[in-house]
Amino acid sequence: LTAGEQISASLLAMAVEKLGCPVISLLGWQAGFITSTAYGSARIKRIEPDRIKKELDKKHIVIVAGFQGINRYDDLTTLGRGGSDTSAVALAAVMNADLCQIYTDGVFTADPRKVKNARKLSVISYDEMLELASLGAQVLNNRSVEMAKRYGMQLEVLSSMTRKPGTIVREATKVEKMLISGVAKDEDVARV
After folding, report:
1. Paired sense of beta strands 167-170 and 123-125, if any
2. Per-residue pLDDT at 86 exceeds 80
3. How far is CA 66 from CA 91, 153, 181, in A?
4. I need a labelling partner for 40 at 20 to 30 A (CA). Which of 2, 118, 155, 176 fits?
């Protein structure tokens, strides 16, 4: 199950290298992801980012294959649904990053493919994002949002198709005028 991420990380590193940039791709175990033994739904127990830090000190771009780690038996494990987002948030937290960017479709008031006048939110709280995720909005997995909230990691959810600013997911402060007060699911469309 880890092969897809391994291949993707390698191909991305090859593309970056072709641009003339120093780069290295690391598998989850090489990046220090230590997990539980629950194959297919492992939990991250800790991250030992020494290798990542050494590569960054060498001025390398580091590409880490998410969704995977290694358990106490030295077996490869996978984190399950949302594992790549969860890996990114965990790594950003352990590296003391200011922000973790997740490229997907963005956070809208409704699914923009199904609701014509859906509008992109500029800010949403962790709790509101958790509510959307738990009710079926397929933007962020709830495990990644829970981890971001636990470690105070601010997220930015950006569109992978445009270069426009994304939606910031953070602790509740002054958010947009239209606060999310509830979510209803209608014909597989989550509406805010």
Report:
1. parallel
2. yes
3. 10, 17, 33
4. 155
DSSP H helices, the chain, are 3-18, 50-57, 83-94, 126-134, 142-151
Among residues 152, 150, 186, the alpha carbon closest in space to that of 170 is found at 152
pLDDT of residue 27: 96
- Per-residue pLDDT tens digits for 14-73: 999 999 999 999 999 999 999 999 989 999 999 999 999 999 999 999 999 999 999 999
Count the neighbouring beta carbons within 10 Å of the beta carbon of residue 65: 26
Sequence-distant (≥ 6) Cβ neighbours of residue 160 within 8 angstroms: 103, 104, 105
**Letter for the amino acid at 81?**
R
**Is 42:77 a contact under the CB 8 Å cutoff?**
yes
- C-alpha to C-alpha distance for 110 and 106, rounded to whole angstroms: 11
62, 97 in Cβ contact below 8 A? Answer: no
State the average pLDDT over residues 132-145.
84
Residue pair 26/63 in contact (Cβ under 8 Å)? The answer is yes
Backbone phi, then psi, for 120, in 5-degree steps? -75, 135
